[in-house]
Amino acid sequence: MWRYSYLISWLFFGLIIYVIFRAIFGRKSKYYKWLQKQLPLWEQGNIINPEQSDRIRGLYKLKKIDPAKKMDMVKIFSIIGAIFVGVGVMSFVASNWQRMPNYLKTIKLLGTTSFTLILGYYLSYEKEAYRKTGKALVLLSSIFWGASIALICQIYQVPSSGNWLIMLIWAFPILPLAIVFENEYVYILSSVLFVAWNYLYSTANSVPNYFYPVMVFLLLIPMGKMSIIGQRINVLALITAGIYAAIWKYEWVSLIIGVGFLIYYILKKDEKFYFYGASLSFIAWLFTFSVIHLKHPNFYFLIPLSVLLYMTYRNKVKENILFCILSFVVWIHLVLKAFNAMLEYRIDGMFNLFMFTLFIGAFLYLVGVISLKKEYIFHESYKKMGFLIAAMTVYFLSFKNIYPHQNVNMLYVSASVGLMIITLIGIGFGFVARYFNSRTDYKEIGTLVAILLAGVFLLISPKAAYLNALVMNILLIGLGIVCLLMGVDWKKPSIFNSGIAILALFIITRYIDVAWKLKEKSLFFVVGGLLMLGGGVVLEKQRRKIVERMKI
Amino acid sequence: MKKKRIFLAVIILIWIGIAVFLIASKQMTLSTGTRVVLQTRPVDPRDLLRGDYVVLNYEITNLNFGKLGIRKERHYKPGETLYIQLEKKGKYWSAVDIKEKKDRDKGKLYIKGKIKRSYGHELTLHYGIESYFVPEGEGKAIEKSMRGVEKSPVTVEVYISDSGSAVIKRLFIDNQPVTFK
To answer: Which residues pair with B81 in a beta bridge?
Structure first.
């Protein structure tokens, strides 16, 4: 039973993080999603004109989407039919039927493959009325081609599952079919096979596969104009390949993928997917570098980070600022880790990390506040990230066990003090420049100063576990209440909801802390469950009433 | 339209060409390669892609530099290719030396293998002959005879080309070739 409690506590923790994230970053209600889908249909039916449609979208901050396509049953049945037949043939090959001589099996299968391809071409291009069936048959011929390779391997006892060369022999000859016949299904099949090839090659040879990203960037993506889904698969596969390479410490693969994505984004500015891919790949490279070169801080990372930041601001890519902020936070931690390794300083436990992160959160929030006053873009993103980082750190620091029994790390302390001073100078600058002049501004700055003061407690007496935990718990309650008040002031349900989430998290965590030590744990589960059920219903009703009032 | 027809014909020719090349390369080894009988130690899983197959482990799969009486020149990494010199000792062929491609001696028989694991003085290699496909449902019967009360020796007839590539021809259980109806 207690083995599962570890898993349950991690699942519970993950759920809490998810709830806080959604509460802070908000969520489009199902009604907004319904409206978003209806608007193009109303336009098509001339119920409203495009200007009216744009005004409605502007009012509810909805993005424009294409009208949903009607389900094409012919296409679906053709594809499913092709896949069924293909799987059936594969199973037939797998059964290794001995009644037919091998040469006859090979000739029959190759003959069927060729015939299916010819028939698919004929129906697609000569008799255009059956175009969809023709496309499905071309897909089927591609599957048959794979079955043919599998059969030859089986005859000569060559292992084919897990064989990267076989994947390549299957994938490469079908790619020209996809391109010339503009067959998106074959393109997707080919893309998936190349993904399999990538991993099998790396695993079999214990080396990074540099060919794969080069192939995807130079061949698959440029040739994949007929299939957006196929291109997305390739982009996602590249991102995953970069992360996989990072896990196996293949340093340069993630970097090549990041640079490739960045070049693609520069060439095709409207494809933000490439931009996100670049950011994620550079982060993967950052981690790999720090694992391989333990004692070398990765200052090279500042180059791609600067480029990403510049392009994020220039093209106003809101989502990417979050990646940039996160990667900056991760980078600064890894630099400190490298310096500690260089100087052979010890880092005991997670306390130093959380202490420093608390000041990072406060600093980022201040950047957001000042950006808002100076009317720079992304001020909300800085504030959201700063708040999230600070709140999560305060939550972790509210546990007594986190505090060290031995001396703290001097590099982390110096960095924390430095960041605190910069933040205080920033607050002072804000007052001098008269940025803070409303009650709400004072509430925000007051909260920021409270966080910094709590941080000072940590710096002065890091081993005073009980006192520091108490301060952090009080700060956590304070943050929750401030969010409730600010949410009402600014009429922002997401901020109000995050206040509720923080207070709920505090109550649940402290309840578990106290009740877990009871002898009767079953009582704890029953009472806790009943409280959450009842309390949750009451809380939700009250929250909705307040949020509805805010919207008026 | 004409261009597409030409392209179609080219693709079909390419597919057939690749298939013929694969068959020819393996058939060449079987026709002109050196016949070798290797001792094995089998295990039997299921291949989702192609039915039952017997996984074969050979005497030459795990090699120890000390037992072979060879000096280990350097550290070997997984994924590297080595050439194992084989000599006939009694009924079966065994490993006697480990060489890199450029160090092979002329006139001697080598089987090409890829390092899977390298630890201390031991190497685990794969030669591309680690599986033997059997018809669906026949795997268990073979496994039974191999794991029976009196275990039957399992040997494999392999053909090795001059370049070191190996192809399995037949499986023997207790010196009897395995056949399927």
So the answer is: B114
- Residues, chain A: 552
Cα separation, A74 vs A81, in Å, equals 10
The minimum CA-CA distance between A183 and chain B, rounded to whole Å, is: 13
As given in the structure block, the two tokens for residue B93 are 């062929």
Using the 8-state DSSP alphabet, how is residue A71 labeled? P
Q: From B148, B142, B176, B170, select the one nearest B157 (Cα to Cα).
A: B170
Here the tokens at position A208 are 């990074």
CA distance A447 to A386: 12
State which amino acid sits at residue B94.
S
Subunit contact B11:A125, Cβ cutoff 8 A? no
Question: How far away is chain A from the Cα of B97, in angstroms, using its nearest Cα?
Answer: 23
Low-confidence ranges of chain A (pLDDT < 70): 1-29, 66-75, 93-98, 128-129, 160-161, 270, 406, 516-525, 528, 535, 539, 542, 549-552
For chain B, the residues whose C-beta falls within 8 A of a C-beta of chain A are 1, 4-5, 7-8, 11-12, 14-16, 18-19, 22-23, 26, 47-53, 77-79, 114, 128-136, 167-168, 180-181
- Reduce the secondary structure of A89-156 to three states and give it as a string: HHHHHHHCCCCCCHHHHHHHHHHHHHHHHHHHHHHHHHCHHHHHHHHHHHHHHHHHHHHHHHHHHHHC
CA–CA distance, A129 with A123 (Å, rounded to integer)? 7
ipTM for this model: 0.80
**Element (DSSP H or E) covering residue A292:** helix A272-292
Closest CA of chain A from B89, distance in Å: 26
Beta strands B154-160 and B92-99, pairing class: unpaired
The per-residue pLDDT for range A116-134, each reduced to its tens digit, is 899 888 888 877 667 888 8
Parallel/antiparallel/unpaired status of strands B131-133 and B81-89: unpaired
Residue A88 CB neighbour total at 10 angstroms? 12
| B87: β partners | B94
Question: How far is the C-alpha of A457 from the C-alpha of A467, rounded, in Å?
Answer: 9
